[in-house]
Write a structure and sequence with these properties.
It comes from Eragrostis curvula. Pfam families: TPR_EMC2. It is a peripheral membrane protein. This is ER membrane protein complex subunit 2. The protein has about 300 residues and is mainly alpha-helical. Among the domains are: about 80 residues; about 90 residues. About 80% of the residues lie in helices and about 0% in strands. The model has no long low-confidence stretch (mean pLDDT about 90).
Length: about 300
């Protein structure tokens, strides 16, 4: 009896269909076969980052007065879309013209103000962009996009400490943003602030306990910090990563082996609990099996490594 497709499988199939349709429409529109507006709408809906194609197809529509008039109020959405694509392609003259049209149509609009600030960013005029964003936040302190742009500016200038400051302030307001917690964690790791990174991953695991990536990242931070207690906890989270991925995460299998070797070295073999010994043996066996299937030429290297760690 055939099993019903899972939600993930359906979502993946739908995404593949949308991507294929986007590419068909793109080729059709670029060769004068019509479907330009349909393509641009689909690109927006999918949040597809194809600026060169969007710029070319969008400009053709904007430069066609008849086609533009048929869009009615939707033409302003097109001006915005073309402006963003132009900035991505460093066609700042086009972006400036589009934003100018929008500014005249919507004076005092925060949405247009964000585009003007983005243009400052595209020019590398960081101070002007900061001032523009500060003005927007005075009117709307909860503008999520503007807070994210301030973080991006700090990173673009290489000021990771400022980025951390902005991320923490952002999370005080939008504390349920899991992507921001992950970004903060990764930024802390880049600054070698491992305790702070571990805290971020703990928050992520509490919020989304079934995502193996968070378990793995937390384990790696703890392993990097070192010390017996951290290594024992890291081993547990490597094990939970293996469980959540059905035993198919090679990095986590390596992690269990490395933690086991480090713990044995620190305890001089006194920490030979049965459960831990069984886990490291199973991880070593799974690693060898994985390499025999996917990279047979590397098996002698893995075997030698496991022997040096006294795990085989």
């Amino acid at each position: 009896m055939a099993t019903a497709p899972t939600t993930a499988a359906i979502a993946a199939a739908t995404a593949a269909e949308d991507e294929a349709r986007l590419l068909r429409l793109e080729e059709q529109a670029e060769h004068g076969g019509g479907g330009a507006w349909e393509y641009l709408c689909l690109a927006r809906r999918l949040r597809a980052r194809r600026p060169a194609h969007v710029l070319k197809i969008g400009l053709d529509l904007l430069n066609n007065a008849s086609a533009r008039s048929r869009l009615a109020s939707e033409q302003w959405t097109l001006y915005e879309q073309v402006a963003v694509a132009a900035m991505d392609c460093q066609r700042l003259d086009v972006a400036k013209d589009c934003i100018g049209v929008l500014s005249k149509q919507f004076p005092g609009s925060n949405r247009v103000a964000r585009l003007e600030a983005l243009l400052f960013e595209a020019k590398g005029e960081w101070e002007e962009a900061e001032r523009a964003y500060a003005l927007i936040l005075e009117n709307n302190p909860f503008d999520q996009i503007v807070h994210k742009r301030k973080i991006a500016i700090a990173k673009a200038q290489g000021d990771m400490s400022l980025a951390v400051d902005y991320l923490n302030k952002y999370l005080e307001i939008f504390m349920a943003d899991h992507d921001a917690w992950r970004e903060l964690a990764e930024t802390y790791v880049s600054l070698q602030m491992y305790k702070q990174a571990a805290f971020c991953y703990e928050e992520l695991i509490l919020a989304q306990p079934t995502i193996p990536l968070y378990h793995l990242a937390y384990a790696e931070v703890l392993y990097t910090m070192g010390g017996l207690e951290n290594l024992q906890t890291a081993k547990k989270y490597y094990a939970s990563t293996i469980q959540l991925t059905g035993g198919k995460n090679t990095r986590a299998l390596f992690g269990v082996c490395l933690c086991s070797a480090a713990i044995n070295q620190l305890t001089k073999g006194r920490n030979k609990e049965e459960e831990g010994s069984e886990l490291q043996s199973l991880a070593a066996e799974a690693l060898l099996k994985d390499y025999k299937q996917r990279a047979p030429s590397k098996v002698p290297l893995i075997t030698s490594m496991l022997k040096s760690m006294k795990l085989s």
